Amino acid sequence: MLRSMEQQRVTGSSEDPRVTELRTAVSRLRRELAGHPAEFSDRGIAEEELAALDSMAVSGVPEIPRLRRSLLLIAGAIGSVSALAPALRAVRIAVDLFGEPPRR
Question: How far is 74 from 43, CA to CA, in rounded Å?
Fold first, then answer.
């Protein structure tokens, strides 16, 4: 996580390092989910929400409440698949980089 932010400073990339971290984490979880042999009932939900997270990251300015909603749906969909836990944790950490949603 910190390494990506440091790399951004060194390379001079204009992309927000939080967006870079989110895109990397989402990509990893999508690959691991695609390669996971077991079928489970909410796999489609996880795939749809990962696509939504990727789309938000590509836009460059994700909405924090929407990020958190997608994370919650993904966690609920694949939370019981322990093989995916490290990649899911990376997505959670990347979403946390954007901070808390505004209080109502």
Answer: 9
